């Protein structure tokens, strides 16, 4: 049984930083590309960032603009999202997921991911 558990969210002032973690168990972690998405009230789920199986390739949503960094530790079955220079518009529930197909699909498309976690709330105050 696959379990995906996000942590590290919280309340932070604008300009502050948070580091999200996503621990995965029950699958061969190093064989999966991983992604972070976010969902704010009244908006669709939005791609934030993704990282390849080895960690050698990373992808970011346009709104990130150099503020976030994704990384992974395959020995710990964990993917991270370091978020700096946070803005009130970054307020959302942040989710971690595994890209289901190794050879097809898009890093940017939520339906191409599975094994979603329950999410962690990030609130940025102005």
List how many beta strands DSSP finds.
11
Q: What fraction, in percent, of the residue positions are helical?
A: under 10%
What does the average pLDDT come to?
A: 96
Q: Return Rg in Å.
A: 14 Å
User: What is the overall number of helices?
Assistant: 0
Coarse shape: globular
Give me the strand/helix succession: EEEEEEEEEEE
Largest sheet: 7 strands, mixed
Briefly note the structural class of the backbone.
mainly beta
Distance between the terminal alpha carbons, to the nearest Å?
Answer: 40 Å
Strand content: over 45%
What ranges have pLDDT less than 50 throughout 5 or more consecutive residues? none
Describe this structure in words.
With 126 residues, this protein is an all-beta fold. The chain is 0% helix and 48% strand. The chain is built from no helices and eleven strands. The protein has strands spanning 3-7, 10-13, 18-25, 34-39, 46-51, 58-60, 68-73, 78-83, 92-99, 113-114, 120-125. The strands form two sheets. Strands 2, 4, 5, 6, 9, 10 and 11 form a seven-stranded mixed beta sheet that branches. The chain has a four-stranded antiparallel beta sheet with strand order 1-3-8-7, with no helix packed on it. A hairpin with a 4-residue loop joins strand 7 and strand 8 (78-83). It is globular and about 40 Å long. It starts with a strand and ends with a strand. The relative contact order is 0.31.
């Amino acid at each position: 049984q696959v379990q995906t558990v996000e942590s590290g969210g919280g309340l932070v002032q604008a300009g502050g930083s948070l580091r999200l973690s996503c621990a995965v168990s029950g699958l061969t972690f190093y064989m999966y590309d991983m992604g972070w998405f976010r969902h704010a009230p009244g908006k669709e789920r939005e791609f934030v960032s993704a990282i390849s199986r080895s960690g050698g390739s990373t992808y970011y949503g346009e709104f990130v603009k150099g503020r976030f960094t994704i990384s992974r530790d395959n020995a710990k079955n964990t993917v991270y999202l370091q978020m700096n220079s946070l803005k009130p518009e970054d307020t959302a529930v942040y989710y971690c997921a595994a890209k289901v197909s190794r050879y097809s699909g898009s890093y940017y498309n939520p339906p191409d991911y599975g094994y979603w976690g329950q999410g962690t709330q990030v609130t940025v105050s102005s």
